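WARN  no MSA supplied for this record, continuing single-sequence
INFO  ligand: HDE
INFO  echoing inputs
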Amino acid sequence: MTEDSTRPQTPGSPGSATPPVEEPTAPTGPLPPPADQSGPATVSPTGQATGTPQEKMAQAGSFLTTAHGARLKDSDHSLRAGERGPTLLQDHHFREKISHFDHERIPERVVHARGAGAHGVFRGYGTAARISQAGLFAKDQETEVFVRFSTVLGSRGSADLARDTRGFATKFYTDEGTWDLVGNNMPVFFIQDAIKFPDIIHAGKPHPDREIPQAQSAHDTFWDFVSLHTEAQHHTIWNMSDRGIPRSFRMMEGFGIHTFRLIAADGSTVLVKFHWKPRLGVHSVIWEEALATNGADPDFHRRDLADAIEAGAHPEWELGVQVFEDTEDQMFAGIDLLDPTKIVPEELVPVEPIGRMTLNRNPSNFFAETEQVAFNPNNLIPGIDVTNDPLLQGRLFSYLDTQITRLGGPNWNQLPINRPHAEVNDMLRDGMHQTAVHSGVAPYRPNSLDGGNPFETPDGSRPFIDHPAPVPASVKERALAATFDDHFSQARLFYRSLTEVEREHTAQAYTFELGKCFEQNIRERQLRNLGAIDPALAQAVADGLGLPVPEPAEAPADVEPSPALSQLGRTWPLDGRLVGLVVGPDVDGEQLAAAIAEIAGAGLVPLVIAPSGGPVAGQQSQRTYLTAASIDLDAILVASAVPPAPDAAPGLDAKAGAPGPETVDPRVTKLLGEVWRHSKAIAAFGAGEEVLRAGGYLDGTGVVTGSSGQEAGRNLLTLMPGHRVWERFPTTGRLAA
Ligand code: HDE
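INFO  complex generated
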């Protein structure tokens, strides 16, 4: 079996034992042939053989038919006036096939076009019962969900590891109606008023003249807007931090951003902010990995999510709320709760867990599910309501409106993925793509002809009621409250809460992005803004750009850091992490098997990296020295000597001419160099230690050995819960204080 670059393969996979797949042939026996449409054996990331279940196949019967069901004899030749003549207009099958194909694409989302989705369940803890009557929060109540993760700026086919915000949209199919929590992986937004949304998106999208750059914020129009529009500075610093390049969708937090209102059974209300906390922790790649991954594996996040679910490593998040009193001014500790550019630090108001979501099933058809899913913040259920956040108010218009173009008419709620699981009894009728066959003659009310049906819901039967929140006495005007005026203090709060390594990464990101801007005045304006966030940050970026530091836009505020905003300093479960085992021709099969068992037993995915594909010492090779890359691994274990092979040079341009230990295959030398630079854990046993010694890694930070394969594996696992060997990152000390 050749290496399949579309999925990681693991020991125990059928490999060469897989029987050859029969070539399709025309049926020779009596017709019809058996309707067995199970696909060829495929292999999951954990090595499980998986046939393609019948229901996953596109076609349900034995014979090809037209769209109206007539059986077809020939779908390979068009109907022509003789075998060398022109094609006839009469050819219905040809026209139907080509015409349907011509209309296969729908407009991509204007933002969040690139995404991946998964099905799952949400289970309430019962802890929210005192603050919301919504049934899905009740103890042990299970609700089906569909989640779509996305980048914001790129087109449908763009790369996953763009520096960008990630969408985190969840559809809860509750029996009281569908609730959509359409959030992001960052808790704040660029703008405070929805009317600015076209401005920020026009600025972030590719330049309108040349339509470049794709899926990037590193260009003049983006920085022009955010430097002029200073309320964007808080969200922008989140994007410039490691949060802008997540390691996996499974390792991102999610935020509802806006403040929502929850209504309890007794009618009392509280204000809340929603948080999704991933069980695996919040982790990121580093910029060099992101750049390499976008070239080598642009589907990295999409693949990671699907592979993990297929392997049974079901991603989980806890849903939590920060709860605030529903006061008249809707302020907390000087923070306007209606301002979507502000957070409330978790140290001031802890996040209270109210339920758990598990994603356990991949979509079976990307278009039907992930592409056609339509989220809508208007989808609310009894017990959950909106507030006057001026960004949220505008979203209540936009999402319904956008689907009419994207999904071709007003009936997009009838698409299978969008259909509520609650009973629907509306009086909406007709329109493009109407698939319901409504009965009755009186889709209006009041009526007497359909017996008065449907009736309005009385109070005791759980209607959705727009909470009768008081409207502040005011005048009609285009304005925001003065409490929205502070644009810098929370950007500073975020920056001051980061560790030194995270600050260095953030400074490097600003330097990279502004280095891609051509307009000098944009760079200088942004440096002034950085000065208002932190003088040392402004200095570091100015040094990188070779510019003097201008006067700050305003004096930096006094802030109390919020340690919860840093990604470092905690440890996390290792489910689904990838460990590369580098083996040479002399590898001891027993020791290798023991190392693999140790790693797999802890819920990680071991990947054997050998000089070539095929079986090696009783294991299947999943990567070769040529195809293995640090971006594909979370840690590495060198299991034997890896002397240079005769074919070491081809394809190794990066290594050509570079110095390295002559005793080690140069491709492995290159791999180890990347793994070291990316600060990933390294281990070795037996002759593998010599490989590390030759490269000068053996005594390095975050490098361990073991007297056996099992011990080396076990020692390696102790280095991984912190995600990376953070001490290995070079820091300058200039951003430490
Ligand atoms: Fe969106 N946003 N948005 N947005 N948004 C869309 O709706 C919009 C905002 C978010 O996976 C669109 O169906 C406006 C904040 C996600 O299908 C569109 C404003 C947050 C997704 C739209 C915002 C989001 C979207 C495009 C300013 C985080 C992807 C396609 C008022 C809380 C959902 C679509 C998916 C998608 C409008 C701001 C999250 C055009 C006008 C704030 C996760 O309707």
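The domain at 578-720 is CATH 3.40.50.880 (Rossmann fold).
INFO  checksum written, moving to next record
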